[in-house]
């Protein structure tokens, strides 16, 4: 790898030199905050949809609300795929700041939308910025982490997503009844815009990027060239299945548990337990992957996730057993997906790492659309319980089999 000085790098003309504070806490804090903002903005629509449909605000119906949610996720997927080459060409810092500014402005504009059509269009455009945020933050954090600690760094950063999601739910309980649904988008947009100047002042460029800065345009096709084709296909399949599980379970777990005979209150409590397990799993997975290796850890995580999801198909009379099984599912399901991102960051050369993470996250976002669709289809057919859990367990098993085809060691850069 050839190094270049910051002064000669095109990515460093407006950045804080990475060598000044190579282990500064600012990147850790700011990347965590960026992911928390994304968590807030991705969950806020789900928090306000019941109010939009019930009050017919902006002319919303159940069908148009579903369109808003789906089209927003399509925007997220497109944004994730498109941002990788830009992050590899222009740097992690500028790309991350730009993505936050984009989705914050558009989220704020959604509060002033006069009708559902413009609201949905703004949600799609905001999704482009939201999709760009996560892979860029992941690339930055994987490069900022100390050697051998990238798993821990990335999983800890991802706890920000759940913090943002929890904050959305708590604010919605108070703000929507007292200030209306628009206040949720106002707060999310303003929070993002206040973060932008802090990032501009305190976020340095990734040191790895400045030392391997691209001198020519990075093409998405580079991640499927030569031996990287097998790597990419395996990781994309795992990412698709991983986010299918995350979004499918978060959307339908209370409903499926209700179909199994559990009460509505129990279903909501189990959903909270699932996400508590997600945070615990993120902390645990990072430590183990750094100590034992990312590939064996992510294989074990998807394997245990498949077993725990299959066990949930069994009707349990003991309440503690039910909550324990859901907690375990949360521990392994959610962090398995983050371990896939950590694996991506380790296998690709730094020059195309942003592109690789963007492609993996983008393909995964289409799994995020497929998960709720799959659960809804099974529910409509009247077989959500137990077949919903069988389907989710099968997705975890497919991810495991896909990752078995991926090598454990970093791969060389593709030939031009």
TrEMBL record:
Annotated TM spans: 29-53, 65-87, 94-113, 119-140, 160-177, 183-201, 228-247, 267-286, 298-314, 320-344, 356-381, 387-406
Major location category of this protein: membrane
UniProt keyword list: Membrane, Transmembrane, Transmembrane helix
Molecular function as annotated in GO: carboxylic acid transmembrane transporter activity
Xref: Gene3D superfamilies: MFS general substrate transporter like domains
Residue numbers spanned by region Disordered: 1-20
Domain Major facilitator superfamily (MFS) profile: 27-411
Pfam families according to UniProt: MFS_1
InterPro entries named in the record: MFS, MFS_dom, MFS_trans_sf, Sugar_transporter_CS
Membrane topology annotation: Multi-pass membrane protein
Keyword Flavoprotein: no
Low complexity bias: start-end ranges: 1-19
Protein localization: Cell membrane
Gene Ontology cellular-component annotations: plasma membrane
PANTHER family per the UniProt record, alphabetical: CARBOXYLIC ACID TRANSPORTER PROTEIN HOMOLOG
Protein name in UniProt: Aromatic acid/H+ symport family MFS transporter
Protein species of origin: Streptomyces xanthii
């Amino acid at each position: 790898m050839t190094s270049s000085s910051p002064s000669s790098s095109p990515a460093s003309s407006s950045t804080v030199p990475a060598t000044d504070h190579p282990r500064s806490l600012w990147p850790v804090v700011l990347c965590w905050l960026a992911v928390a903002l994304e968590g807030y903005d991705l969950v806020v629509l789900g928090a306000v949809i019941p109010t939009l449909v019930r009050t017919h605000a902006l002319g919303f119906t159940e069908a148009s609300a579903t369109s808003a949610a789906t089209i927003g996720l399509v925007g997220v997927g497109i944004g994730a795929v498109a941002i990788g080459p830009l992050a590899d060409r222009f740097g992690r810092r500028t790309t991350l700041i730009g993505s936050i500014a984009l989705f914050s402005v558009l989220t704020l504009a959604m509060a002033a939308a006069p009708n559902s059509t413009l609201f949905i269009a703004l949600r799609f455009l905001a999704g482009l910025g939201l999709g760009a945020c996560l892979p860029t933050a992941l690339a930055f954090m994987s490069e900022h982490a100390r050697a051998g600690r990238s798993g821990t760094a990335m999983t800890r950063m991802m706890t920000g997503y759940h913090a943002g999601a929890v904050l959305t739910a708590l604010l919605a309980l108070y703000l929507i009844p007292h200030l209306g649904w628009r206040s949720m988008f106002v707060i999310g947009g303003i929070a993002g815009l206040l973060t932008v100047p802090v990032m501009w002042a305190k976020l340095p460029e990734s040191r790895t990027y400045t030392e391997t800065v691209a001198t020519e345009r990075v093409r998405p096709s580079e991640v499927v060239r030569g031996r990287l084709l097998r790597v990419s296909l395996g990781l994309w399949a795992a990412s698709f299945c991983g986010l299918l599980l995350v979004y499918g379970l978060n959307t339908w777990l209370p409903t499926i548990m209700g179909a199994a005979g559990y009460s509505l209150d129990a279903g909501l409590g189990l959903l909270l337990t699932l996400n508590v397990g997600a945070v615990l799993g993120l902390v645990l997975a990072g430590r183990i992957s750094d100590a034992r290796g990312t590939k064996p850890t992510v294989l074990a995580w998807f394997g245990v996730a498949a077993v725990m999801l299959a066990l949930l198909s069994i009707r349990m009379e003991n309440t503690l057993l039910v909550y324990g099984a859901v907690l375990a599912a949360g521990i392994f399901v959610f962090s398995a997906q983050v371990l896939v991102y950590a694996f991506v960051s380790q296998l690709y050369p730094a020059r195309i790492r942003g592109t690789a993470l963007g492609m993996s996250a983008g393909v995964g976002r289409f799994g995020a659309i497929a998960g709720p669709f799959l659960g809804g289809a099974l529910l409509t057919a009247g077989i959500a319980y137990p077949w919903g859990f069988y389907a989710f367990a099968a997705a975890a098993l497919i991810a495991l089999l896909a990752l078995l085809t991926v090598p454990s060691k970093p791969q060389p850069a593709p030939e031009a």
